[in-house]
Design goal:
By secondary structure, the protein is α+β, with helices and mostly antiparallel strands. The protein has one helix and eleven strands. This is Prepilin-type N-terminal cleavage/methylation domain-containing protein.
């Protein structure tokens, strides 16, 4: 009697050259579709992480300004956040409490935080300076209004991000939004940053 699950090996063949070429072709097509999507996903995650880092730094600076009862000044330039606050002596608590790096601006050595490389910060702030005190945030925008919200948008490799931060004056409420324009317009930015509810 012959077993039911008998396997014949004498007839077994390997893969033909045509089958190998077709397999490689399918893998090439799948990788050509997935690699650009993966690269754009990585770039978007880097932008999101940088925007969240800016939000966290502003929140920590608000808390630090309350703690030391001092008005703090943050300058947002390229991929850097500089602490331009004037301190009486070097032992004072700093507004950028988690900063370990420093930079020389003019004759002053100031604390600094670096964002990811390739990131550039855009804002509608005058001189890109955000004033934060224990009374709240006082963004002075380019058209010199303290009642207008501050808008922060990132640029990565020449492309404007689709996300933005909107900082309410006085109260200092920081909300994330979607930036609806493909170009940066500093004088009309609040019309393009729509809040996500």
């Amino acid at each position: 009697m012959r077993p039911i699950f008998a396997i014949k090996f004498n007839n077994a063949k390997g893969m033909t050259l045509l089958e190998i070429i077709i397999t490689i072709l399918i893998l090439g097509i799948l990788s050509s579709i997935s690699i650009p999507h993966f690269a754009s996903w990585l770039a978007q995650n880097e932008e999101d992480a940088s925007l969240e880092q800016i939000k966290l730094i502003i929140e920590q600076t608000k808390q630090q300004a309350k703690l030391i009862s001092k008005s703090c000044q943050l300058q947002l330039v390229d991929n850097l956040i500089n602490d331009l606050t004037v301190y009486k002596n070097s032992t004072d608590k700093k507004c950028l409490s988690g900063s370990t790096e420093t930079a020389t601006i003019g004759t002053k050595i100031v604390p600094q935080v670096k964002l990811s490389s390739g990131i550039k910060i855009h804002s509608n702030l005058a001189n890109n300076i955000l004033s934060i005190s224990f009374r709240g945030i006082r963004p002075v925008t380019l058209n010199k209004s303290q009642e207008q919200p501050a808008i922060i948008v990132l640029e990565k490799n020449g492309k404007i991000s689709q996300k933005c931060l909107l900082i309410s004056p006085r109260v200092g409420l920081i909300r994330s939004g979607i930036y609806k324009d493909k170009n940066w317009n500093e004088y009309n930015a609040e019309n393009f940053c729509q809040i996500i509810l």
